[in-house]
Amino acid sequence: MGEFDLIAKYFTRPVKRAALGVGDDCALLAPAPGMQLAVSSDMLIEGRHFLSTVDPARLGHKALAVNLSDLAACGAKPLAFTLALSMPSVDEAWLAGFSRGLLGLADEHGCELVGGDTTRGPLNICITVFGEVPAGAALLRSGARTGDDIWVSGTLGDARLALEAFRGTLSLPATMFKFARLRMEQPTPRVALGLALRGIATAAIDVSDGLIGDLTHILLASRVGARLDADAAMDMIAARRMPANAESGLALETLRACALAGGDDYELAFTARATARDAVEQAAHASHTAVTRIGTIESALGVRVVDAHGTVLPQRFTGFDHFG
Ligand code: ADP
Ligand code: MG
């Protein structure tokens, strides 16, 4: 099977919203009047961002999910994406699974594959997404103000628990591992929440490299600091709430580290005025996404992680490298 047959079979579909899709030298997109185009790229490299043994359908899903997560963080509605793919050989079973996972998630979000590039090389997947957002309404990193609440969507830390189980640095009960692995391999981009937070969130980011690290990007851009409730963050580990957790024997330190600095969560961390709590809850409800309030923006720079008693914990989580 040659390059063009492969593109035709696995990556070409009739266009819907785009003016022109796969098959010409460029795709053509027409954002609606008054809208700005939100553009973001993310690359996934075998061995660095995913394990070579991962199910191809899950990999297809994740490759697009991490990109949609960036649109979500900006409050942009997905429109289209391109796929630049290099792979060592044509493996039709792999391609079928990959395109099924990829295009399945694309359809869920009405995001069309409009073009790309396909070459021989190490397995490497680079997606660029295009979304639209009313001019001036995009959620940015720079709007957090002293006194704002800090919120995080969904769950935290599960993906890192799964990664560490794969690495063999900890062992999880089977039900916990199964769940955590799904969070690692098939993250859910919080697109509906991002849209619902337009005009409510003062700043937002998606959590890909760990909560504290990503929150720090908001703090630097907004020139503020934060106080974070370590136990509230730790309670966001979904696998912890499973009955199997009783016998998991995971140390408090490990759980805190996974929640605060685990990575690969693809949740939204955002700030909003304390007077906007009802509006945030309504946005969460309308988008069927749980949100948890885990801290406060303060004028003093840096991050202070506190326990349930308000005691400041040693700053072990910034530049976290617990697992090496
Ligand atoms: P060119 O070299 O003229 O840019 P290519 O031969 O690379 O075009 O690709 C032919 C067409 O197929 C183009 O429209 C391109 O956008 C599309 N395409 C190539 N690879 C992919 C892919 N992996 N997914 C979707 N479309 C692709
Ligand atoms: Mg090309």
Kindly describe this structure.
It contains ten helices and ten strands. It is of the alpha+beta class and 324 residues long. The chain has two domains: 3-134, 60s Ribosomal Protein L30, Chain: A, CATH 3.30.1330; 149-306, Alpha-Beta Complex (Phosphoribosyl-aminoimidazole Synthetase, Chain A, domain 2), CATH 3.90.650. The strands form two sheets. A six-stranded mixed sheet has the order 6-8-5-9-7-10, sandwiched between helices. A four-stranded mixed sheet has the order 1-4-2-3. Helix 4 crosses helix 5 (174-185). The longest helix has 19 residues, at 56-74. The N and C termini lie far apart (42 Å). Residues 318-322 have low confidence and may be disordered. Bound molecules: adenosine-5'-diphosphate and magnesium ion (MG). Adenosine-5'-diphosphate is lined by residues 7, 11, 22-25, 83, 85, 113, 115-118.
SSE layout and pairing:
Layout (H helix, E strand, L loop, with lengths): L2 H8 L24 E11 L10 H19 L2 E11 L4 H17 L3 E9 L3 E11 L14 E5 L4 H10 L6 H12 L5 H6 L6 E5 L3 H12 L2 E5 H5 L17 H10 L5 E6 L4 H10 L4 E8 L3 E5 L18
Parallel strand pairs: 2-3, 7-10
Antiparallel strand pairs: 1-4, 2-4, 5-8, 5-9, 6-8, 7-9
Helix pairs in contact: 2-3, 4-5
The structure holds adenosine-5'-diphosphate (ADP) and magnesium ion.
Adenosine-5'-diphosphate (ADP) binds next to β2 and β3.
Sum up the structure in keywords.
324 residues, alpha+beta, 60s Ribosomal Protein L30, Chain: A, 2 domains, six-stranded mixed beta sheet, four-stranded mixed beta sheet, 10 helices, 10 strands, 34% helix, disordered C terminus, binds adenosine-5'-diphosphate, binds magnesium ion, PurM-like_C_dom, magnesium
